[in-house]
Amino acid sequence: MNWLKKTLADVAGTQEPDYGPSAIQPVTKQAETKPYTELRSEHLKWHAMESTCVETQTFYFTTDEGVTCMAQVIYSNVMGVRTTCQFNTKIYDHDGPGKHQWCSDPLSNHGFDEPRTGFYADNVSVSLSEDGTTYTIKSAVNDDNICNLTVKRAAPGFMAGENGTSFFGTDPKNPWGSMWHKFWPRATVSGTMQTKKKTYNVNGRAVFIHALQGMKPHHAAARWNFVNFQTPTYSAVMMEFTTPSSYGKTVVNVGCIAKDGEILYAGCSNSVKHLAATTDPVSDWPEPKALLCNWESKDGKSIEAELMIDLPERADRVDVLAHVPAIIKNLIGGVVGTKPIIFQYIAKDKAALKVKEAGNETSETGQLFSEATFIS
């Protein structure tokens, strides 16, 4: 019966059997002996798998003027049958939900440069400099948001453990799926996003994340938490996913505390808790109202950090299936119990990051961008 369920899940995207927690080899295990690995340019190559996958490069921007925005390339493949690429941008309006500048455009004639660290398509390019320190993002694919941006790394990039990867499958030597995230936790951004109404000067802080879900997304994770907190001195980043019950509801959390020029801590000994929540009447998911985030070094360094915040009114509630390529929508839209919703929050100077270095504690206010995603 499990074989039948697995075969059906592979083809139709339905729920997988309950394999249990032994069917995932999380990157948290690697991090027990090697907390993180610094990124080199070759780590940032596009994999562009020919089997089912969703691969993304996402840039989050916190401008000096207090505006939050993002740019993203999505490469998706379903069962090796069809590949689609998408370019997304979003400029958040702090006056409330429903007023954001959102663009999501399918791309034509996509490809990669020779080192495979750069992506291009008609009217879009995202390229990495030869020295591996700078991304240039240019897009004229949508007149509602013309992008000309430069992102420069301000601290080393990292991935958790040896290779940043969690593997899925009952045979560790022959996994059938994978998940990884690679981070630039602290970077600068300069340039513009030009809409029909206004040209935004996008100058400030940036976070870059290159991610791969080498399997059907709703099979890999049932829930996500993402935290990006930027202060004048520190960048605190955390990405957490919880697997469906088929993999034992295993929690995998990767995080980092960085300053200009250095990583103070990176690894998997982090946690994020929803201290309060209310039921969202539209989606029926528990919408978070308060967060407690902790980072703590376990490799002999005396580094601890804490962020506790009462969340403001959400910046947006995103129905994922309304914004993803049709082929992904068709893949997961009919699965019982699957209703992907993202609650997004932005807060400036509403909370302080407390950081302890070698027994000395400092506290700085900053700007938060956070997401809580519920899938199944």
UniProtKB/TrEMBL annotation:
Source domain of life: Eukaryota
Bilayer-spanning residue ranges: none
A Gene Ontology BP annotation from the UniProt entry: response to oxidative stress
GO CC annotations on file: endoplasmic reticulum membrane; Golgi apparatus; nucleus
Cellular localization per UniProt: Cytoplasm; Endoplasmic reticulum membrane; Golgi apparatus, cis-Golgi network membrane; Nucleus
Occurrences of domain Svf1-like N-terminal (ranges): 54-213
Domain Svf1-like C-terminal: 215-376
Membrane topology note: Peripheral membrane protein
Pfam family, one: Svf1_C
InterPro entries listed in its UniProt record: AttH-like_dom_sf, Ceramide-binding_SVF1, Svf1-like_C, Svf1-like_N
Keywords linked to the UniProt accession: Cytoplasm, Endoplasmic reticulum, Golgi apparatus, Lipid transport, Membrane, Nucleus, Transport
Annotated signal sequence range: none
Known function: Ceramide-binding protein that may transfer ceramides from the endoplasmic reticulum membrane to the cis-Golgi network membrane, and is thereby required for the biosynthesis of complex sphingolipids.
Family: Belongs to the SVF1 family.
UniProt name for this protein: Ceramide-binding protein SVF1
Naturally occurring in which organism (per UniProt): Knufia fluminis
